[in-house]
Amino acid sequence: MDNFSTMIVGVGGQGTLLASRIIGTVAIKKKFDVKVSEVHGMSQRGGSVTTYIKYGRMIHSPLVEKGEADIILAFEKLEALRWTDYLKTDGMLVINDQEINHMPVITGKAKYPLDIVENVSRKYKNIIVLDAMSIAKECGNIKAVNSVLLGVMAAKTAIEKQIWDEAIREIVPEKLLKVNVAAFEAGYKAF
After folding, report:
1. Domain holding 74: CATH number?
2. Of the residues 31, 47, 57, 164, which has the maximum number of CB atoms within 10 A of its CB?
3. 149 Ramachandran zone, left/alpha/beta (phi>0; psi -120 to 50)
4. Which residues contact 68 (CB under 8 A, 6 or more apart)?
5. Residue 181 contacts by C-beta under 8 Å, 6 or more apart in sequence?
6. 3-class secondary structure, 114
7. How far apart are CA 149 and CA 166, in angstroms?
8. Which of 126, 12, 107, 115 is nearest to 69 (CA)?
């Protein structure tokens, strides 16, 4: 396998870092060289959070350059728009159909952009948009959006589902495991 690059983009508190730990664990279980880098904005105040995960035979840096990401998991629509330049032309973009107002929108200095999905679809063809929050809610907890999105990603990669299941069971705290397993399964079966 060649090197594989993933980006997780979202807002603080959405579970992006847990998702990156699960992907990293999956890659380790497959005996790949793995590098993970987390970039925190004002994450505790709803700021942008970005995680780069690269795995393959030999990885020298975790950073993903523009046009290099095989998959971007966008936990929120504006973050999808903000980071699409990092996606390969034939890469996959998974978007949670959620809008979180950032500070300029809250203060009235800006408006939340309209038609984000339509604009991104003009350049990229491999896009999956889903209401991961509603799916997570049906599974028992809206905070399991990250597991829903991981399920979608897992279904679209060549890594065996069993490996993903094992990683989730190792990383997710016991008290949250049941809902996260259900959310992962729902995402896995969604497409």
Report:
1. 3.40.920.10
2. 164
3. alpha
4. 5, 86, 88
5. 147, 165, 168, 169, 172
6. coil
7. 17
8. 126
To 5 degrees, how large is the angle CA 27–CA 132–CA 114? Answer: 115
Q: How far, in Å, CA of 181 to CA of 169, rounded?
A: 8
Stated as kind and residue range, the H or E segment containing 33 is: strand 33-40
Q: Which two tokens stand for residue 153?
A: 């990603």
Q: How far is CA 4 from CA 1, 32, 64, 111, 134, in A?
A: 8, 10, 10, 35, 29
Given the structure tokens 């679809």, which residue do they identify?
Answer: 121
| Burial per residue of 164-189, b for 16 or more beta-carbon CB atoms within 10 angstroms, e otherwise | bbebbeebbeeebeebbbbbbbbbbe
Predicted TM-score (pTM) of the model is 0.93
| Tokens at 26, concatenated | 């999956």
pLDDT tens for each residue of the chain, 191 residues long: 589 999 999 988 888 999 999 999 999 999 999 999 977 665 455 678 899 999 999 999 999 999 999 999 999 999 999 999 999 999 999 999 999 888 788 889 999 999 999 999 999 999 999 999 999 999 999 999 999 999 999 999 999 999 999 999 999 999 999 999 999 999 999 98
Domain count, the chain: 1
